[in-house]
Amino acid sequence: MLPPLKPIAIKERVSLAYIERSRIDVLDGAFVVVSKDRTRTHIPVGSVACLMLEPGTRISHRAVALAAQVGTLIVWVGEAGVRLYAAGQPGGARSDRLLYQARLALDDEARLKVVRHMYQVRFGEPPPARRSVEQLRGIEGVRVREMYKRIARRYGVDWKGRKYDPDDWDSSDHVNRCLSAATACLYGVTEAAVLAAGYAPAVGFIHTGKPLSFVYDIADLFKFETVVPVAFRVAAQGRQDAERRVRLACRDAFRETKLLARIIPMIEEVLSVGGMELPTPPEEAVPPAIPNLDGPGDVGHRC
Fold this sequence. Notes:
The chain has helices at residues 61-69, 95-106, 108-123, 133-154, 174-196, 213-223, 227-236, 242-256, 263-272, and strands spanning 14-19, 23-27, 30-34, 40-42, 48-53, 58-59, 73-77, 84-87. The chain has 2 domains: 10-87, CATH 3.100.10.20; 95-272, CRISPR-associated endonuclease Cas1, C-terminal domain (Four Helix Bundle (Hemerythrin (Met), subunit A), Up-down Bundle). Helix content is 42%, strand content 12%. 36% of the residues are buried. The strands form 2 sheets. The chain has a 4-stranded mixed β-sheet, with helices on both faces. The protein is globular and about 60 Å long. The model is unreliable at 299-303 (pLDDT under 50). The longest helix has 23 residues, at 174-196. With 303 residues, the chain is of the alpha/beta class.
């Protein structure tokens, strides 16, 4: 008999891995990537937070099942990771946190408290008093545009604004392509953490109406600390193989800033400001078929 699986905590994992033009399968019990020349590369899938699959990649049913079992998010993206087509779920999401998140988002007062705290975390100072969510969103947009300009000047990059078309990758300038590749990395690992903690990516507070609204909310809290400076630095170094260099630099930035160890605690921090308690399950609720044993992750999280 094999011992039960012990998922590695999200905060202890490698942030992400990109795979393109290969076949992914489970061979001899191992997660394997087979290239066109039949070269086999083993991936310790249980120690990776997110796998980004680019065009030309095929994945077997067994590989998807294994990734879900060990809590690794699989995301199907476009060339250079600039467009998300679909995403799996690492499993183990708990309804108590999803209901807690939804209650906060539906309560106008609680939502405003969460948005104000996100603003303070992002900019290091309290937001202006007596402002609505829509007004704070507008103020945030102005400050973000100024931050882009300031970072562009730091790296000596010609900056004409954040402009890109996800349907036409080549229409963007060099800097915007680097930024799109960098933010795709950040969104991937953030979504993996959001799902692992049992929350819904679509239920946002600042961003609304999109499949990844909450992912954007949380990722924005780390964006200018991690991937934006990386994108401008790589853009300043030249165009050759820029997207690949951006990914490698983002991976290093995530490790240096200990990003995976910080995302879930930050989610808990910003939501706790809403002033609501986690709902207790009703007495008639059926317990989970597989009990949640104590693990190495944060309290209440699958991994």
